[in-house]
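Standup notes, protein team

Yesterday: finished cleaning the Buttiauxella brennerae ATCC 51605 set.
Today: TetR family transcriptional repressor structure.
Blockers: none.

Input for TetR family transcriptional repressor:
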Amino acid sequence: MARKTKLEALKTRQHLIDVAITLFAKNGVSTTTLADIADAAGMTRGAIYWHFDSKVSLFNEIWNTQTCISQEIRRKLKSQIPDDDFQLLREIFIETLKVISSDRRQYELLQILYHTCEFSGEMYSEREIRERFWFNRERMSKILRSCISKGKIPLNTNVDLTITIIHGYFSGIIKNWLMQPENLNLYEQAPDVVDNLFLILKKSA
């Protein structure tokens, strides 16, 4: 019985997180209350306060429960392209865009990150969230330096500048796609989006 109760509590907690993500993405974090989340989840306000003592703790728990998309994609692709870091980088970018554009949860999380949250106080910062789940400078630096050592990109490549260019490019693409997805079929055009970035990088190297 105790095990069943614990599992039920975990299921309830996850349900509240799922509902919160949808409401935060749709209505904004600042305007969504714990009471709103409880009502949408079909629960009492006491139930949500049993799991989360504040909206900040719920907001942070949302990110604590998410898996790192970039690591999952890299592990998946590494076994397929073990010796070509430049091609691996291309495939990582393409697969990431495809997942973002086809997974509703990723869409909602990115809406929160880019459009519906005013980060403040003890909330995880935008930078912390972005680097933990989608774009980590340290991981990107290792891949680029490996590409340089293997002659895939020029020796004089400025790694820090290249990472800034990559981040700015994808942030702009994703942010605008979230606002007007009808203007870009991100799933189908992911290879074109990535290949255009690589042309920019080659010219700037």
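Follow-up from PR in the comments: DSSP finds eleven helices and no strands in the chain.
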